[in-house]
Amino acid sequence: MSELRFDDVTVRYGAGRTAMTAVDGVSLTVPSGEVVGLVGESGSGKSTLARTAVGLSPVHSGRILLDGSPIAARRGRRPLQMVFQDPYSSLDPRMTIGASIAEILPRGLGRGERRDEVARLLELVHLDNTRAQAYPSELSGGQRQRVAIARALAGRPEVLVADEITSALDVSIQGSMLNLVRELQAELGLSMLFISHNLAVVRYVASSVAVMYRGRIVEQGPTAQVLEEPEHPYTRQLLSAIPRRVQTTPTTTHK
What we know:
single chain, alpha/beta, four-stranded antiparallel sheet
């Protein structure tokens, strides 16, 4: 896996007096093989930063580097893959699960190799390989999100960007998704930028955390340190909003 670094990145939309700065001079590092949590309320700029990393939003100034080299200079496969919030809209409803995953696999694999790799990826996210013949509409929300993760991993990314991947799921199955993230990180050594508005979620999966407010990083550091001794008022505000019942260890039910 690789190190992802945002170096004084600014993202703006529009021009002149109507210009809006969504991300304002953000510097953030996702070390190789680690999960970094990025938290903030809706509109804080965290999803814009994620979309910029994978090339879906333009960089106004600053650099995004992968192992010290600009991502824009990379050719061929995409070194970053993103898992989106809504698992249904991220999958083509006209394609089977197997075809959707196979579409991302590297070129040059034979038909049998592609079939075997799809089966392996489905098993990696705890789905039976017979699901390869199913369509997204036949799966639950949790199962679709597992497919979205398998599809992202099919691209063999150097860094995985996960944008609010549990927020569209039922509370009853959010825990199993977080357990899957931890399991995959341990097994594959994933470098991951994990985005959430929920500090309790980030506490469970991330080794370090950055807090984003109005387009800027206002606090960052080891997860335990930031959550136990928050320095910025906004971080303390986010912590006070965590319901007591959420501060529990996620379940292991797979759905």
